[in-house]
Design a protein that fits this description.
CATH topology of one domain: GMP Synthetase, Chain A, domain 3
Oligomer: single chain
CATH architecture of one domain: 2-Layer Sandwich
Strand content: 15-25%
Order of helices and strands: HEEHHEEHHEHHEEHH
Structural class: alpha+beta
CATH class of one domain: Alpha Beta
Shape: elongated
Helix content: 40-55%
Strand order of the largest sheet: 3-4-5
Radius of gyration: 35 Å
């Protein structure tokens, strides 16, 4: 006995030109459309890039940023956010931020000419690397001659415990840092003469 079909079902099945069906006994199975032939990886990547650009993904901007911003500006600024048709670009503080603000309309024109549907370009200060902390140079100088660095001072044996330790520690305290720590702990635990 054949399965009853309604006209609505027939219309849906027949409205899809790529859909096909197969009959197994009294049941009609709807089969998916045949798969398109395989494409090469280069073609897939090109299609993906075109889709990104059409749909306004930030990834497309990141990829083409060096050519769009130019060799002088690109290393000092980067696209941060893409919200609708507004792009926010972050620039290093100082002259690079000013240069980007000065060339804002040229950059917007280059982005539009490349196929990005942008209406506005917003520029803000952005620190691409860690901010310099006060005293960083002094910290680097202290670390360069720190007594615990074996690569600078070499190795020696501690006269108290006999363990290998950096020679800089022996020169500074007369023994290794572990013995120095024990010595300081013992001095802190000992009662002071006035008590």
């Amino acid at each position: 006995m054949a399965e009853p079909t309604t006209p609505g079902r027939r219309r849906r099945a027949s409205s899809s030109p790529a859909a096909s069906s197969r009959r197994v006994g009294s049941i009609t199975l709807l089969l998916p459309p045949p798969r398109p032939p395989a494409t090469g990886l280069n073609r897939c990547l090109d299609t993906l890039q075109q889709d990104w650009q059409r749909q306004g993904h930030l990834a497309a901007l990141w990829q083409r940023w060096p050519e769009l911003a130019g060799p002088q500006l690109a290393p000092h600024c980067r696209p941060l956010r893409l919200q609708g048709s507004r792009l926010t670009v972050g620039a290093a503080p100082g002259p690079w931020l000013q240069a980007l603000q000065y060339h804002r309309h040229q950059l917007l024109g280059a982005l539009r000419a490349a196929g990005f549907a942008l209406r506005d370009l917003r520029i803000e200060q952005h620190h691409p690397g860690p901010l310099a902390t006060p005293g960083r140079e002094e910290e680097a100088r202290v670390w360069a001659r720190h007594p615990s660095r074996a690569d600078v001072h070499g190795m020696a044996s501690c006269p108290r415990c006999g363990c290998p330790a950096p020679a800089g520690e022996m020169a500074r305290w007369g023994h290794c840092s572990f013995c120095r720590r024990r010595q300081l702990a013992a001095e802190a635990a000992a009662p002071s003469p006035g008590q």
